[in-house]
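Record pair follows.
FIRST:
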Amino acid sequence: MSTIDVRTRAAEDEPAAPPPRAGRNDHVTAQSPTLVLLVLVATIGILAYAAFLLNPANRGDLVPYVMVLTAEAILIFQALLSMWTILSGGHDARDFAYFSARERLLSSPEDLGPRAQRRRSRWPLMLEGREITVDVFITTYGEDVAVIRETVRAAVAMAGRHVTWVLDDGRSDEVRDLAAEHGARYVRRLSGNGAKAGNINHALALTNGELFVVLDADFVPSENFLVETVPFFVNPDVAFVQTPQTYGNLHNLISKGAGYMQSVFYRFIQPGRNRFNAAFCVGTNVVFRRAAVDEVGGMFTDSKSEDVWTSLLLHEKGWKSVFLPMTLAVGEAPDTVEAYTKQQLRWATGGFEILLSHNPLSRKRRLTVDQRLQYLVTATHYLTGICPLILLLVPPLEIYLDLRPMDLTITWYTWILYYAGFYVLQIALAFYTLGSFRWQTLMLATVSFPIYVRALINVISGREQKWSATGDRSRVSSPFNFMIPQVLFFAFLLLTSGVAVWRDLDNGVPSLAMAWNVTNTMILGFFVLGAAREARQLRPSASRSARRARSGGTRMIRRPVGVLARVAEEQRGAA
């Protein structure tokens, strides 16, 4: 059951708002000599550190040694496969067939009037001599109306004939009206079954486009989004084309950490996965072939990570995927502790579900060896987020119980030498790929362990996770409601650092455990301070929202799409 509103209010007579400019091809080739050299040196550092840890002569007390070995084994496994994937990223998915199809994709139709001819959104999309039909789905679930407005405006204005649909699981009359205002069609479900995947499947039952685009409500597409992606479908085996998530709101500690955390993935990992036909959907900025999705029974609804699950099922059916490393939509990274926690919990839950219920190494999976390894990396990736929890507990074992992970005869200088060969070289690699060292990313990677532990427990216990849109600002809570474990750990490590400093002063010799624990304390401290700053900013914002609610008014905040495009350009230039 649904309500469909197809009012268009003379769309031809409205000037189209300019969407963000299509960015230049912003991927850096993995075959760059400097990058190849850094990857090879980092790989040598990884192997040297692994040999150091595994050497029986270096083993210390059993409990901390096993803890370090377990955590570092997971990190080393992920690091080595990442190096391998990055080195595989020199392949360009755009072949001769793509460029030939792109050249013939758009042509001004002579049967339209002069005014319509000037609107490229009215021009048919031609593949192999025939017009191909495209539906554009914008999924919404309580996001700010002003945010949705900019996305709808830009989506309607994209070059190439298409139909834009606003799929509103938030059941908002304001969203319905703005869809009509900008010439988009509106769909409202009467139930929320299947969350985002269910929303898309419901729309697929009401539409018949050969291709369909999925855009989150906060991702503003460029005018050339379809022009750059649709030509790939000249290959009948391509199931979907994914483009990066580029963020335009990197303005605070959380958004910078979350945004830059994804940069290496989109610039190097996903392009490398093209080589193995293992690039997966990330839920937005993606174009699907309807026939392929129909073959696997629609978007996967038994997980809140419908994107990676649907990708896996498509690959098992023999379909191909393409990742195009070109910024074609600019959106918003989570910029609050709550939004970041819910996003990471959703993603980690999907990965652990694959690991525990759909193991890619199983003989039942119809995948190539390369695909199995790539999906194994995806399924185990969030175990790396639990590793900091293990490593945070190692220094207190020495400080309180005098238990050391490595042999006492090894100086802490030797330990640091091998440790730096692993971590410092990877930081250098990230510095080269991102243009600078992003300490916010290191901080978030260290303090996010409660999220991933909870996700793993949820999957093991079968606990259902509630769906929450990343961009939903309607019910923002205090950040401290979502970081109680981090606050408790900070207090524990702060006390432990005091004990360690007092002990080292009494011994007259600084220890590695003290330095390690103080560093961990500072990292958690920065996170707690950032959360306190966020809480102070939320208080006046909540008061304004309450006043607006009492007065019945809505403050419209227009996102300057030109600014978002410029921020994206600056982000690419910095990298």
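SECOND:
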Amino acid sequence: MWLGVDYYPEQWDISMMEDDLNNICELGCNVIRIAEFAWHLMEKKEGQYDFSFFDQVIERAKAHGLSIIMGTPTATIPAWLANQYPDILSEFEDGTKRVFGGRHVYCFNSKEMYTYSERIIRALAEHYKEVKAIVAWQIDNELGHEDSDICYCDQCRKAFQEFLHAKFDGDIDSLNETYGTTFWSQEYNAFEEIPLPSKTITTHNPALRLDWERFRSESIVRFADFQTALLKEIIPDAVVIHDFPGGGLGKHVDYSAVSRNLDVAAYNNYPVWGGQKEPLAPNEIAFGLDYIRGLKQQNFWITEAIMGAQGHDVTGFAPRPNQAKMWAYQGMARGCESLFFFRYRGATKGAEQFCYGVLDADNVKRRKFYEVQSFFRDIQKYGEELETPIRSEVAIVYDYDSLAAFRIQRQSFMLDCETEMKKYHKTFYDINVPVDVIPADSNLDGYKILILPQMIIAKQEFQQKLKRFAENGGTVVLTYRDFVKDINNNLVLGKQIPVDFDSFAGVHMVESESLQEGQEFPVTGDSEFYCTQGTGSIFRDMLVAEDAEVLLRYNDVFYKEFAAVTRKQQNEGYVYYIGCGLEDAVLKQLMRKIAAEQGIVFEHSTDGVEVVYRGCGDNRIRIVMNHNASEVQNAGETLAPFECRISRENEIK
């Protein structure tokens, strides 16, 4: 278990380093994370590499018994490189060049970016390849963050055209047929005529836009794979990680694809940021952690754990005493096995002056310092248990193409795909049932329930996996807007919705509509839900049950004949179809029914109290976290505000 801080010694006078390292050891750290933003320090002029500063840092860290996470510095290109090759800078949609001065300003399709990145990484890795104190290498920083996942420059246009040329084997007629470009007279005679989908009158072709999303993702995945492969070439046994930001489901890049060739997916966990009035709800923080764990379906690291208020231009909410410490416990409980606090000391210069650290700029040890120290002392006692994998029986399944399809055509002002996922996740979080948030190409073995919110793109291979899953005893939960389009983001002629899944689900849609605020509609229970009354919203499919059981119906005057929720048994398993956005109380009732049907064991706890079990057998531990700003009672014990308690199985009994 690595426990440490993010340390930027280049931002301070070198005379401070010895005291800093003493303090870092006093915290209980065994590792520091360094160098991710230091390209110019390593290469002040082209080809003149100088690693002497970090040689000093590493030697002094080793003398203090500290290991190192070394970053490749490509997230912040040096000014001389931007000046020498201005085309390396990415462009906004209106064609304006991004100006040197921020971070992540490079274009992922710049040949110069690849050339100079390879040179600095190769020199860095060759220089440090024999240093055993470097226990992991982090590539770049928060790939695709802060709109860096989008660029509209000429390099990207040419690369996009080449991407399409390869996809369609050079056959422009095949592209025209696939996209349906006869609509609005959009036929192309050559791939060179294809535009980037920047602003136009009305909108671009949805199939073109989905391929653009795929191209944007591939551009970043290719750059990540290039760095990983380069490090592995020079240091075959290197542990390669990347620090993913929050909000991954809304990016123009598939983070599960980025993580595929990494050894470890890492996460920068910020439950509150500048401009937020208050932190995210506990279940939303948990969702983000479960999503990162699902990228590789294995434990992860937290490379930036908040301790002080954060913000670039707007200072954020300051975590209350023990609150940030409790978030660190929550991260460990939900699959983190190594954690770093951001940052050791807050900056006095530069854009992150208001990103407060373990120490503030005055360099005085106060509450935050001692909270980190107590957390490290406590959590290291449970390293063995926390390194065991989490075995969830429930998974929320997403698909990058489907998420992109909703960015392209939102369909409902009230619909946000990530918000809908979080609603399902919360129904299990509230009863302390672990949930994985996984991409559709994941291994489905071991799950009992799969929930597919708004998976609009129908992919035959995945659908076959779902059918086998249900036939072998699992429960598949479909939602409205599932399997509506083909892989090209087109509607399908002559097939009922859910496309290629209607017979298996025993239901098909005949009409649908999008709702806005104030247009909620009544639903009423049928069968075992006979006494249930509630409302729906956002969207609804008018469902005709063929050989499925109707559990809920619409109860307004025009649509009483249509089902809202159905269930069909398949051998030992089930297929549910939820045809509308259900109110929380009804959704909770339905999900608990599904959980009980699959024998899922859950545990009630006081509101705001999260309970997680880790390990197995006698090494099993119970982690109880109070997210409330007040004292509460839970299962016969009193928990102080933001308190966390860990007990072993023999103590639980």
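COMMENT: The chain is about 30% helix and 20% strand.
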